[in-house]
Amino acid sequence: MATGRQVRADVGMTGEVTLNGRVLPIGGVKQKLLAAQRDRLSTVFIPARNEPDLDDVPAEELGALVVKPMTDVAEIVAQALEPAAETAGVAA
To answer: Which of 43, 47, 63, 89 could form a disulfide with 25 if both were Cys (CB 3.0 to 4.6 A apart)?
Structure first.
Protein backbone atom coordinates (compact mmCIF):
# COMPACT_ATOMS: atom_id res chain seq x y z
CA MET A 1 0.00 0.00 0.00
CA ALA A 2 3.04 2.27 -0.28
CA THR A 3 2.10 5.36 -2.25
CA GLY A 4 5.13 7.57 -1.82
CA ARG A 5 2.83 10.23 -0.33
CA GLN A 6 3.53 11.88 3.02
CA VAL A 7 1.13 11.66 5.96
CA ARG A 8 -0.44 15.04 6.70
CA ALA A 9 1.24 16.67 9.71
CA ASP A 10 -2.07 17.82 11.19
CA VAL A 11 -3.71 14.39 11.59
CA GLY A 12 -3.61 11.65 14.19
CA MET A 13 -5.13 8.20 14.45
CA THR A 14 -5.84 5.84 17.29
CA GLY A 15 -7.28 2.35 17.34
CA GLU A 16 -6.29 -1.24 16.78
CA VAL A 17 -6.08 -2.32 13.14
CA THR A 18 -6.77 -5.96 12.21
CA LEU A 19 -5.00 -7.82 9.42
CA ASN A 20 -8.16 -7.24 7.35
CA GLY A 21 -7.99 -3.46 7.88
CA ARG A 22 -10.85 -3.13 10.35
CA VAL A 23 -10.36 -0.47 13.02
CA LEU A 24 -11.19 -1.83 16.47
CA PRO A 25 -12.00 0.16 19.63
CA ILE A 26 -9.41 1.05 22.26
CA GLY A 27 -9.35 2.65 25.70
CA GLY A 28 -8.22 6.13 26.73
CA VAL A 29 -9.91 8.07 23.93
CA LYS A 30 -10.39 11.17 26.10
CA GLN A 31 -6.70 11.33 27.03
CA LYS A 32 -5.61 10.72 23.45
CA LEU A 33 -7.83 13.49 22.11
CA LEU A 34 -6.61 15.91 24.79
CA ALA A 35 -3.02 15.11 23.79
CA ALA A 36 -3.87 15.61 20.11
CA GLN A 37 -5.39 19.00 20.89
CA ARG A 38 -2.32 19.99 22.95
CA ASP A 39 -0.08 19.00 20.03
CA ARG A 40 -2.18 21.18 17.71
CA LEU A 41 -3.49 18.41 15.49
CA SER A 42 -6.61 19.40 13.58
CA THR A 43 -8.06 16.00 12.67
CA VAL A 44 -8.08 12.73 14.60
CA PHE A 45 -9.39 9.40 13.34
CA ILE A 46 -10.88 7.15 16.02
CA PRO A 47 -12.59 3.76 15.89
CA ALA A 48 -16.30 4.17 15.15
CA ARG A 49 -17.12 2.00 18.15
CA ASN A 50 -15.39 4.58 20.38
CA GLU A 51 -17.75 7.37 19.28
CA PRO A 52 -19.75 7.21 22.57
CA ASP A 53 -16.49 8.05 24.42
CA LEU A 54 -16.60 11.54 22.89
CA ASP A 55 -19.18 12.45 25.55
CA ASP A 56 -16.32 12.38 28.11
CA VAL A 57 -14.20 14.95 26.24
CA PRO A 58 -14.63 18.59 27.33
CA ALA A 59 -16.50 20.61 24.71
CA GLU A 60 -13.72 23.20 24.41
CA GLU A 61 -11.12 20.58 23.47
CA LEU A 62 -13.51 18.64 21.27
CA GLY A 63 -14.44 21.84 19.43
CA ALA A 64 -10.79 22.39 18.52
CA LEU A 65 -10.60 19.04 16.70
CA VAL A 66 -12.29 17.35 13.77
CA VAL A 67 -12.90 13.84 15.10
CA LYS A 68 -13.71 11.27 12.43
CA PRO A 69 -15.02 7.89 13.58
CA MET A 70 -13.84 5.22 11.12
CA THR A 71 -14.29 1.48 10.58
CA ASP A 72 -11.71 0.74 7.87
CA VAL A 73 -8.04 1.71 7.71
CA ALA A 74 -8.24 2.28 3.93
CA GLU A 75 -10.66 5.16 4.58
CA ILE A 76 -8.17 6.67 7.02
CA VAL A 77 -5.24 6.33 4.62
CA ALA A 78 -7.23 8.02 1.85
CA GLN A 79 -7.86 11.05 4.07
CA ALA A 80 -4.61 11.16 6.04
CA LEU A 81 -2.15 11.32 3.16
CA GLU A 82 -1.05 14.46 1.36
CA PRO A 83 -2.52 14.87 -2.13
CA ALA A 84 -0.59 13.15 -4.91
CA ALA A 85 2.02 15.36 -6.56
CA GLU A 86 1.00 16.89 -9.86
CA THR A 87 2.67 15.31 -12.89
CA ALA A 88 2.00 18.14 -15.34
CA GLY A 89 4.35 18.25 -18.29
CA VAL A 90 5.31 14.58 -18.12
CA ALA A 91 5.12 12.92 -21.53
CA ALA A 92 3.59 9.47 -21.84
So the answer is: 47
